[in-house]
């Protein structure tokens, strides 16, 4: 009877070993790689790890290699469908160009947040824009 109860612990990850997975971290980074091992704390060992940077429909990959990820930093983990991955409408661009675009986007975001904080502050709201335990 116990065998019919689905795994709700790290044991449920056994089907993902040796498969390509996507890992989303607390800081927003998205990593893909082959899941080689894990433990009871959901610490993951990824091989052929790549950090994918996105801007609209463009992307760049940063090769990392072998990576040990501490489980408390993981927001989501999922298997990548290799066939569907090939059909995505994204265009790869050089890493330097991607970093420039992301830096410009961050500057725009900071400028917009300053304006929002001023408007909301004038209405009595308090801004709390700092990094914390968002998850």
From TrEMBL:
<dbReference type="GO" id="GO:1990904">
    <property type="term" value="C:ribonucleoprotein complex"/>
</dbReference>
<dbReference type="GO" id="GO:0000932">
    <property type="term" value="C:P-body"/>
</dbReference>
<dbReference type="InterPro" id="IPR047575">
    <property type="entry name" value="Sm"/>
</dbReference>
<keyword id="KW-0963">Cytoplasm</keyword>
<keyword id="KW-0694">RNA-binding</keyword>
<dbReference type="GO" id="GO:1990726">
    <property type="term" value="C:Lsm1-7-Pat1 complex"/>
</dbReference>
<keyword id="KW-0507">mRNA processing</keyword>
<dbReference type="Pfam" id="PF01423">
    <property type="entry name" value="LSM"/>
</dbReference>
<comment type="similarity">
    <text>Belongs to the snRNP Sm proteins family.</text>
</comment>
<dbReference type="InterPro" id="IPR001163">
    <property type="entry name" value="Sm_dom_euk/arc"/>
</dbReference>
<dbReference type="InterPro" id="IPR010920">
    <property type="entry name" value="LSM_dom_sf"/>
</dbReference>
<dbReference type="GO" id="GO:0000290">
    <property type="term" value="P:deadenylation-dependent decapping of nuclear-transcribed mRNA"/>
</dbReference>
<dbReference type="InterPro" id="IPR034104">
    <property type="entry name" value="Lsm1"/>
</dbReference>
<dbReference type="GO" id="GO:0003729">
    <property type="term" value="F:mRNA binding"/>
</dbReference>
<keyword id="KW-0687">Ribonucleoprotein</keyword>
<dbReference type="InterPro" id="IPR044642">
    <property type="entry name" value="PTHR15588"/>
</dbReference>
<protein>
    <recommendedName>
        <fullName>U6 snRNA-associated Sm-like protein LSm1</fullName>
    </recommendedName>
</protein>
<dbReference type="GO" id="GO:0006397">
    <property type="term" value="P:mRNA processing"/>
</dbReference>
<feature type="domain" description="Sm">
    <location>
        <begin position="8"/>
        <end position="83"/>
    </location>
</feature>
<comment type="function">
    <text>Component of the cytoplasmic LSM1-LSM7 complex which is involved in mRNA degradation.</text>
</comment>
<comment type="subunit">
    <text>Component of the heptameric LSM1-LSM7 complex that forms a seven-membered ring structure with a donut shape.</text>
</comment>
